[in-house]
From TrEMBL:
Gene3D superfamilies: Immunoglobulins. InterPro entries: Ig-like_fold. Keywords: Signal. Residues 1-23 form the signal peptide. It comes from Winogradskyella thalassocola. This is Uncharacterized protein.
Amino acid sequence: MKIKNYSAYIFSILLLLTSSCNQDDVNNPTLSDTDLTVYFWGEGDNITGIAWEGYDVLIGETLDLSLQVSPSEDTTVQWVDDETGEVLSNDLNYTYAPTEEESKRVNFIATRPSGYEKTVVFNFRGNLDGYTSRINEWQSILIPQGTQTGKFTVEFDMIPSKDIMDGVVGILDGIATTYSDNSCIVRLNPSGKIDAYDDTGYAADNELEYHAGLTYHVKMDVDAVTMTYDIYANKQGGDVVLIGENYKFRRKITHQDYWSMVAGNFNLDDPGTHRVLNMEITTLTQNQAPVFLPVDNVVLAEGAVLDVEIEAVDPLGGNITMEANNLPQFANFVDNGFGSGVITFDPYTNCGGCDLGIYDITIVATNGVESSDLTFTIEIVDPNAAFDVSADAADATIWSGGSVDATWTQLFGGHVATGVGGDDQVVSVMPFALPEIPEGKRVKSAVLKVNVINNNSWVPVEFDVYAIAPRSTSEVLSTDYFAGDYDTDATAAGIQKGFIKNGDALGEFVMDDPSGLTLATFINDQYENGASAGEFMFLRIGANRNDMPLWAHLQFDSSESAATAPILTVTLEDE
């Protein structure tokens, strides 16, 4: 009786299990032919995109691919050469083994009994070595030596397929999708020469032409901390040419992880590609501390307000915090996060010059591992304080016959017997750039100073100062010449009569105060009439007579004389 009961129990369990299996079959519907899918063996991702992007395989090496299909029962497969139609394989496995440089397309076709097909297109490229660029399709290759954060060298060979093409090789911090992603770029320029990117555009310090089928070796010495690089290139067996020195990164980033390449077709009817091979990177140093973008020293007038942007970059892309140390009372720093901050300078007005002086500014950036300092100075100046404007290097001596000489290291007035204009009367003309005048200010005084080194004459003569209206360039013109009675030149304004007289002692001559006010009025009138900072006004020193057949020789230092060059001292005042 016990045996029978036990057997009945086992039978019930088996019946229950059978019923459960049948129920599972009901809940898992059979896949239809249109559900046909192709996968890599052992992986679940769909492979269509990967297959189309393709594979680069070196000649003499092999690539083995293993696929799976679902549903697999009764599904037949073929690997078919797209160009010839030849069936290369009838199973899920295929080996690509190039024997020559080529591009080959192979279609993997899976077919169901109903005739429904699923096709996956594989692109294969057989290369001698390295990579072949693609038209308007970026390729990015991870730097095998790891992230570069300090100094390192980049070397590679490139072979253009055309004499005129547009191909680049870059170094950057991630996957390239456009040119501006790259920090360092070397280009096969559509002009037929090799150039590189410097800060805001392509440039080349020296020319190197390229030609189809020839190999060109490129070396870049890169400094990720300063975000600069030097570029050298040479044709195989040829002399090394310096393409660029101390070029600035395009993308300002302090860690580099990838190579990139692409070929363009802009304005090219027959674009070419280039092969890039023998790619090597040698790490020289590594940096872990944050890197600041440089900030220039600042000069700010008391009462003005200035915002200075501060930016630091972490070599490994980490988070950065910043703080300012020992700021002056008129400064405030705000850390905006992500390595960005702003320091605002707002020196007080009407406090008796309480903020005047030079201040050291220090900003500290920390990434949790290391810190870096940025130091610069700000000088707070009296907005009405005098400042000097130097004569431009285009200052010149003019002969009455129209000859102009801007090359002498001295300027002349009176009558000379030598020079490009021969034995003739002369005047000197000095260009001065109009200064930037802050809003609400005007010129109070403008005083000329020159250093006389020769003053001899056989006839009585005085040398007067005139001002000539501004022009866009500093070039002295023959029409700037005039000699004669004071303030009788209709094309210029008389500033000081008898600035220098025959027989005066040698040395420094400074315009008198009334004349400084007269020149200030002239300058203010020029601004009111539309002149702007950066244009050039001209001061002329010439004789008060035009009948000097005999020696009358005034000679003073020109702009080339450095410390003793002509100077215009300008003082401002409130309008």
